[in-house]
Amino acid sequence: MLSIKNLHVSVGDKPILKGINLEIKAGEIHAIMGPNGSGKSTLSHVLSGKAGYTVTEGSVTYQGMDLIEMAPEIRAREGVFLAFQYPVEIPGVSNIYLLKAALNAVRKHHGQPEVDAMDFLTLVKNKVKLLEMDEKFLYRAVNEGFSGGEKKRNEILQMAIMEPKLCILDETDSGLDIDALKIVADGVNSLRSPERAFVMVTHYQRLLDYIKPDMVHVLAHGRIVKSGGPELALELEEKGYGWLEAA
Amino acid sequence: MSAVTQSRYAAAYDTVAPALPGRDLPWLSKRRLDALAQFAAGGFPSPREEEWRYTNVSAIEKKLFSPLLAAPASEVDQAWIDSYRLQDAWSIVLLNGRFSAELSKLASLPDMVLVLGMAEALAQHPERVESHLGKAVADSEHGFVAFNTAWFSDGLFVHIPAKQVLAKPLQLLHVVTEPDALATTRNLIVVDPMAQAEIVETYTGADCAYLSAGVSEVFVGANADLALYKLQAESTKAYHFGGTYAVQARDARFAHHNYAFGGLLARSDIHADLDQASACLLNGLYVGGKRQHIDNHTRINHLKPYATSRELYKGVLDDRARGVFQGRVIVAEDAQKTDSEMSNRNLLLSNDAEADTKPQLEIYADDVKCGHGVTVGQLDEKSVFYLQSRGVDEETARNMLTFAFANEMVDKIKIRELHDLVLGELLQRFPQQGVEKAWL
Questions:
Q1: Which residue of B171, B181, B251, B308 could cross-link B210, Cys pair, CB 3.0 to 4.6 Å?
Q2: Which residue of A has its CA nearest to B393?
Q3: Is B390 in CB contact (< 8 Å) with chain A?
């Protein structure tokens, strides 16, 4: 589904990613861990198409397409979803408005008719229930005045509505208490399927107790310095990142 | 410079005066003549005056707008007026600056509440008018106030007695139908202690040049609560001046929500004097395009301790439009423990649009909390990217965010019908596709 080859990325003149190689197949869950400043967020931003990053070398192929060449909205419509580390507050746009705009953008892209208002409400209300959210959230402005946990749940709600193929979760763990984390993890787990892949970028191993990865990669100084199974995460929790960074 | 043009209005006064209400009241005649003398000497305000620095009204001097001395010949388009009328409200219509009994709907007003056209109030309760007229704003404030005192042809007199809670909003609908008309109205709104009311001022007119020059004096009694909404949806060929001058007694709460969409040249003054522990909320939104010039001037006088004021004005300016915001907060020496915040945010959608913003804090007390912030800029790129990452194309994302920036102010309207009316004005300018109105 996603093939990253020798990816080099700079911000301004400063190289951040220095040759990332990663293969992700449908149905897999990959965790990308690493200390602060290792380039984790840069990787998720580059995959989602955020401005301000220059790809100086290498390639990213998503379902046979050159991902780097695609506008952010096209990536989203093609099924790449970024759950933000810091979801943006948008006063004046209601959650339900954004959800409908997002869903219709995806449908239109695939030649499907716009969703009927009643069907849409039914769909959204079911997903809201799944994430143990209050329906009132739908009519509030996007993320405005939401707690940290509510914002992260709202990201997963958007994901559940858009039904992407490649879900990138950027530091979904950070700022969540254990109850909020469980709800978010349940939401993610309910969306697992053989057609869908997840990339979880996280500083904390705790998230992986609730969402079991197939592969764990450690990012340091802009490179993947170690890859392994879920047991690698436990090793990291025990030993920290120091032994890998030095390597 | 403008001595000649000033005299055009002043010279025409003799033909206007006989048609003005309250001719038989010596005190009023004197007040009008004093105001006329003041206006004749100073004219309309000029950009040389600090508080008119960014707004040049000399075009009004060059044109000669005249009050209608008789009813217009043309039939009034009722449906058009009704499109601005709140159904679940008492409404008063001022047509070309004169109270229209047949267009107004005042049935079943509570007995003790007094709502009258100003001409009628001068005939029936002259002493009540006398005791309030000019008490919230002096003619020396600037030329438009003096002009209004000399020229006002009608207006509204509202008196809400103590402890009375008005069950429905009271709407004051200003409508101008005639080209080159001058509509000069003076309103007095008196809310007695512990009373509560919502009043809506709506300004609109036919697609032609005219001058609407209104002044409202507002008296909010001790521990009373008044929310005043203004929807300025004048013709984009029209000139608009609207001054709202409020005096808040102890513990009084006054909220003013100002939505400005119309006018070729529009200026609003919103001033409030705050007594001890009173609370003042000023919200505003101005949306300008083409060559519109929209100026909002606010002044909050913290005169006594423990009062709070909150102010947020937002502007969206496209094409060659110009928006002006001047916000003054004055904290008197005696006004300790004042808590005040003022903010003005502007969104410029074109390279030729302009925003002039001037917040001013003048603090003479030493134990106060006062803040202000101003921004002039473009849309937040993080928000644009966030929407793009949800599949929304960039152009649509920018349109949604522009709408949202303004809609945040519309959301503050607590009267449903008015909310929908103002939202409609906004949607005309920034249409949102494929979304239920109830979701906005």
A1: B181
A2: A73
A3: yes
Report yes or no: A133 and A157 within 8 Å, Cβ to Cβ.
Answer: yes
Do residues B427 and A97 lie in contact, with contact meaning Cβ atoms separated by under 8 Å? no
pLDDT (tens digit per residue) in A137-149: 999 999 999 988 8
Helix (H, G, I), strand (E, B) or coil at B320: coil
**In this prediction, does ipTM exceed 0.90?**
yes
Tell me whether A135 touches chain B (CB under 8 Å): no
Q: Write out the two tokens for B425.
A: 């004005």
Residue range B43-96, pLDDT digits in tens: 999 999 999 999 999 999 888 899 987 777 678 899 999 999 999 999 999 999
Q: Give CA separation, B291 vs B237, B265, B266, B353, in Å.
A: 10, 9, 12, 9
Contact at CB, B389 and A87, closer than 8 angstroms: no
Name chain B contacts of A48, Cβ cutoff 8 Å. Answer: 389
Note the pLDDT of residue A246: 63
Residue B340, H or E segment: strand B339-348
The minimum CA-CA distance between A178 and chain B, rounded to whole Å, is 27
A38 has pLDDT over 50: yes
Using DSSP, state whether B107 is helix, strand or coil.
coil
Q: Are B386 and A102 in contact (CB < 8 Å)?
A: no
Q: Which domains does chain A have, with CATH numbers?
A: 2-245 (3.40.50.300)
Type of residue at A166: L
Q: What are phi and psi of A161, to 5 degrees?
A: -75, -40
Nearest to A93 among B382, B394, B400 (CB): B400
What DSSP state is assigned to residue A195? Answer: T
| Chain B residues within 8 A of A141 when measuring between CB atoms | 404, 408, 411
